Input
Amino acid sequence: MNNLEVYLKLTEKAVSEIQLPKTPALLYEPMQYILSLGGKRMRPVLTLMSCNAFGKPAEQSMNAALAVELFHNFSLIHDDIMDAAPLRRGKATVHTKWNTHVGILSGDGMLIEAYKKLNTYSPEVSHALIEVFNKTATEVCEGQQLDMDFEKRSDVTLKEYIEMIRLKTSVLLGCSLQFGAIVAQRDLSDQEKIYQFGVNLGISFQIQDDLLDLYGDSTKVGKQTGGDILANKKTFLVLKAFEQADQRQKEALQTMLTENNPEKKLAAAKRCFEQLNIKTETESAIKYYHDIALKNLREIKISDEARQPLEELAAFLLNRDH
Output
């Protein structure tokens, strides 16, 4: 299996075949709903690719891959509640379509389903998977809390921000890849190398998300244009702008952050960013972490043929427009 589309189709089929109970409907229908909204399925695909790259059939890691996808969607339901987000993948978020209580409980249910999938392996493999999963889940929660904390701080640094996105986003990509190595029963050295590939790819991915939030097509991105700016999130773009701005430009940025009119706020943000060349600076950072990820990948002692699907996916993510 050396074609990205093959992995995507395999993943999509498996996700569509997840069987959940029918009752109580308000618990399980929202879980089925968010899974049906699609998405890139990047995380489970990484698990399958990793397992296959290490010489085992991708299908052996499918339950681990589904656990990652279930956990990811659980986190999206809860993130959307905390962010009061109206859209997810171009459709109504779970708490908007139903209500907040339903969103919280159905999200919890998805987390439990993830653990069930991890428990389908031999005791030794399940223990290793759950150990990595628990660490990752804790770090994702830490990253989410830092993200919320940053909204109330005016002194967040780029270094702090990179650490926050490492925790909130990147460690789950690393976990996804490590899952494949665990199922393939590779040693800790291989697990660590494939994990670092995922972490750096994830940092690149999240910075690109920041860029697409403001400059992407909302019909493709599936979220409100400039939602991060409107919520005063400390994105890479905002922090880079403050880092490079002179006193007058910093005052303009501060004024932009206090603007209540959404259209005026987004227009002001784009003006500030254009003056400081922030779009180009952000694109450079995306490529920087992407290149580190590729270096991590090439340090793993596997064949070029085995490595190719992971390189293809990294290239696909670098060039995405949503």
Notes: The longest helix spans residues 123-150. The chain has 16 helices and two strands. The longest strand covers residues 87-88. The chain has a mean pLDDT of 93.
